Amino acid sequence: MRTDLARIVGEPYALPGTGTEYTQDASIAMGLRGHADAVVLPGTAQEVADVVAWCYSRGVAIVPRGGGTGYSGGATPAPVPEAAGPEGTVVVALDRLDRIRSFDPGLWRIEVEAGVTTQTIARRARENGLMFPVDPGAAEASQIGGNIATNAGGPHCFKYGVTRAWVTGLEAVLAPGELVRVGGPTRKDVAGYDLVGLLTGSEGTLGIVTAAWLRLLPAPAHAAVPVAAAYPTVDEGCAAIEAVLASGVVPATIEYLDAGALAAAGGSFPGGLPTGAQFLVICEADGGEDEVRELVEALGPDARAHEPRELWRWRDGVGIAVTAVQGGKLSEDIGVPLDRLAEGIVGTVEIGIRHGLEACSWGHAGDGNLHSTFLLTPGDHAQLERAEAAVEELFDLAIALGGTVSGEHGLGWLKRGQLSKQWSPAAVRAHSAVKTALDPAGLFNPGKKTP
Ligand SMILES: Cc1cc2nc3c(=O)[nH]c(=O)nc-3n(C[C@H](O)[C@H](O)[C@H](O)COP(=O)(O)OP(=O)(O)OC[C@H]3O[C@@H](n4cnc5c(N)ncnc54)[C@H](O)[C@@H]3O)c2cc1C
User: Fold this and answer.
1) What is the pTM of this model?
2) Domain coverage including residue 37
3) Distance from the CA of 297 to the CA of which of 30, 228, 323, 371 falls in 20 to 30 A?
4) In this structure, is residue 311 part of a structural domain?
């Protein structure tokens, strides 16, 4: 297999399937490991198409891989032998497709290959007075192809929308190895079905994204100013979030931390937290002094502005601080309608109690997106089993509140099968029909994102 693939991508870029970092992703924190028969790093979109054609004609499964920062095991190849292709599994890593094909700052647009990192795009935009607002936490490693495949979000997506809002066109390899372009630099295009939307969020199960046309925006004229306020209860904190919306201000971000997350991370909060703080709201204004003042008014008398870099560095460390409490965690990314946020936050803790687990949450409050987390002691298998049962109950809660089992990270491998709880049988059949139409042999990322 490797010899054939080396003829397509070149000897140095056809690697063995074992002994490289390409058989695991960020879900390794959950102990998920995969197996591949080979790893290839194509250098051009045409090489990607040739690799897919080779695999598709031989019954070999294809696992697309970006930066490997995904939390749901989507880029982990064949986590169990049954998820391999009939003739094996090849990881197609997009690292070498890292060119910026065109950049027109004056027209607010950029065309990039799939392997360009999120951080590179954001930096190029910033250097030219523009912004690319999608900001998933691991921006230095995640690739735009991976962001598109997971329709990634991040704090600033409250005001600016998730990845889909910024993609005007895609170049992709579809079965059985065809290079296609849908959309492009045109900002509006409703001529065909929305294949750009379909591929966005498809988690590598319908094809491989090789390049994207992205919209950019002029950077806000005013420096961003985060404003934070602490509250004694979840209900008061959530009421403040709704007060912000009712005030008519559109903050760039609305984030929250509950009592458990504050117990883990609050000790290093810049300037310290007031006594009795059980809930924290962070909103960021990027519309100037008046907006900051209105935000402070809406958040209440204790709200105060912070130095942005200091505050966001602290916020970036929250996940690590929560993990440090017991040495491990099982974290999910449910989403609920904004008016049910308090129930999701309180419900997470109650589920933890029922299963004998410490639980907490934090996340993108404005989008109703909770990182509901159960704390774990590494090596405690009984506790892990209880946490897995707790997560099932958490998904039931999200659905009962009118929400979703995944607001950001996708189903991947770890949440396979959960969509059937959320969607009706007819909707699930439509989901499966799309998969069969675009991937009749079922070779693109088998076992992932299954309903
Ligand atoms: C510290 C940390 C913070 C995070 N914060 C956020 C956050 O705020 N918001 C958020 O949404 N996510 C977040 N994530 C999750 C993750 O960063 C995003 O989902 C990210 O966009 C994944 O990109 P990647 O390149 O690493 O993809 P990978 O992990 O490599 O792959 C993810 C999925 O996409 C598929 N894929 C990858 N590249 C392609 C391609 N070119 N074509 C087709 N399919 C492909 C893979 O098969 C897999 O199913 C975070 C992760 C970490 C580790």
Assistant:
1) 0.96
2) 2-93
3) 371
4) yes
